[in-house]
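quick one
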Amino acid sequence: MKTNRPLAPETLAAQALGFIDPENGALVPPIHSATTFERPPGGIVGPGYNYTRTDNPTYAQVEALLARLEGGEEALVLASGMSAVTAPFLALGPGDHVVVQDVLYWGVRAWLNDFATHWGLKVQYVSAGDLDALRAAMRPGETKLVWVETPANPLWNVVDIAAAAEIAHAAGARLAVDSTVATPVLTRPLEHGADLVMHSATKFLNGHSDVLAGALITARDDDFWQRIRMVRKDLGMVIGPQEAWLLLRGMRTLHIRVRKACENALAIAQAMQAHPKVTHVLYPGLPDHPGHAVAARQMQGGFSGMLSIRVAGGKEAALETMRRMAVFTSATSLGGTESLAEHRRSTEGPDSPVPDDLIRLAVGIEATEDLIEDLTQALDF
Ligand SMILES: *Cc1c(COP(=O)(O)O)cnc(C)c1O
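structure w/ pyridoxal-5'-phosphate:
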């Protein structure tokens, strides 16, 4: 039966946009391992595939799905989340001014400080979620890009995307949003006015801790987007065809995984709030979180699978709690089916703004009671 109602995002993801191979009826797209494609003599430039560093047919279905889920015009898959972070900055020029939030995925800050400033990019940091500070930092005509992450690692500050977009646009800048943690299941930044969405597809999008990948989705196919495309090609920031295929496979279950992780994370946050050894629970789903009101407006159906707890007794107590965990695994990363715990301060090093007593929890899709019981017994010493 045909309906006129547009299909829900989870239907689009579960069916990989309804892919059926036109040649043989297969429900799963093939992997094109070719690095090179036949071209008419003299025809290297122009439409069609020519070389995998430029593009590969295995990317097409997953990029189409990403664009559709985010409501963008086009999407690109890249070699890693960090490729997807750096490509838009590399598409800018020396002397350009960018405004970046101060507490966010630490790799972004590290790369900007180590490399981007060396070739003349002017980087200014503003407090995450502070719109007045963002407004004050803008230099009309000179600021080209505003970079935010929401909810942001590892304190889960929430940024009002619509307000940030308005501020960026008023100064002639673009707004890019690292939406790795929210995923298109919970937030669609382009609908709130963002120009570019970035994902570490390594995390929830792939969802099985077995693919390193990044994604960018643009509201518009414009000059800036074409430059980003060139950066991917010229720097070889491409994903392998096998990885692109696995990413599409993983994304078929995105919605069900994200919903279960959100449900688990909220239950854990509530349980941890009642635990005497826990001094703070940082989760936008809790009404006392400073970003809760904006998150409730901007996120649909959940507040993500990520939260942090701060434990009484400082760093040693945090590390001891982690050593005692049996269901949570001590490891970096997030967005997999399995739950992970990490002492971020140790990972990020001495310059990190993260408190010493903080444990970041990346919640998976296990049984809620197993996770809560594990944390409860781990804290009980
Ligand atoms: C992991 C992560 C990145 C970097 O992605 P990689 O795939 O590890 O390169 C960027 N932003 C956020 C929010 C992340 O969690």
